[in-house]
Amino acid sequence: MMNARISGLRSVELGVPDLNRSSDFYQKVWGLEETAHEGDTVYLRGTGAEHHVVALRQRPKAALLAVHFSASDRTAVTALHAKAKAYGTNGLTELAELPRAAGGGYGFRFKTPEGLPMAISADVARHPDVVTDRSRPTKLTHVVLNSAAVDEQTSFFKDLLGFRHADSTDMMEFIRCCADHHSIAFARGNGASLNHMAYEMANLDGLMRGAGRMKQAGFNIEWGLGRHGPGNNIFTYFVEPNGFVTEYTTEVEQVDEATYVPNTAEYWRNFPGRPCRWNMAGHPSNRLKAAMSGELLVGEDEGAESLRCEEVMARTLGR
Ligand SMILES: [Fe+2]
Hints:
The chain is α+β, with helices and mostly antiparallel strands. It has helices spanning 19-29, 74-87, 150-159, 204-216, 265-269, 286-292, 304-316, and strands spanning 6-16, 33-38, 41-45, 54-58, 63-71, 96-97, 106-111, 117-122, 139-147, 164-168, 172-176, 184-188, 193-200, 223-227, 234-239, 245-250. The strands form 2 sheets. The protein has an 8-stranded mixed sheet, covered by helices on one side. The chain has an 8-stranded mixed sheet with strand order 10-11-12-9-13-16-15-14. A hairpin with a 3-residue loop joins β10 and β11 (172-176).
């Protein structure tokens, strides 16, 4: 199978210094639900069928531990593994059966050329019940990564994993692996790190209900409400208690594989209504920009930011 490729985005795996507190936040405030808890790891689902959209692991410092992608079946996973091996991919693990608590399945891990951890799997259990609560996220819909070598990362994802080009701006390259306009984007920066993760809400009303729940729990909207240019999605951005950036988003453009034509950076430079089509959102807060650069991640050397987060969580959880 020479054309094996990624078929979707599953989940993010995050290291967090306080597992219980982070799990409480992601369940009671962000709107996910625990689906399994084993050892130092909690798996949290959205309202969609994906087994989990976030895995939280107890670690000394907040960190991205993996972005997980799906492939259509075990044959595709095996073919992608062979491609990764031939490509000389860093950090490539052997093919393996995956833990039952994680939904099982079959897959492997690897690293991007800049060293960010990734994983591919198939045959992972899915939830038969789809919850109908529009105020809670349905799925993880995109992850944005900072990169000092955007062109190289984009080529790696296209050549090895089968991503297609979605759009270019001066700041970012957007790439896609399913009908969503983008599942991954690379932001031009000084190095490789997690910029933000975005969770899909069923509609605008659901997004506002989620954003209101965050606001009532003490989390400011750091950018938004607005509508992006590339992808046309409505957005609100927050900084969660570990210092990661989380986004509620909805109405992301659905791409027709046969007819979609990417736009150039010049097109977006001249697009009216930037960075928000509604001319509503303005620019991200300085705090959000710092968090998007990974500067607010909490951990062993906890500073003022983590103390502030503790205060927020104490209010949020009534402690
Ligand atoms: Fe986003």
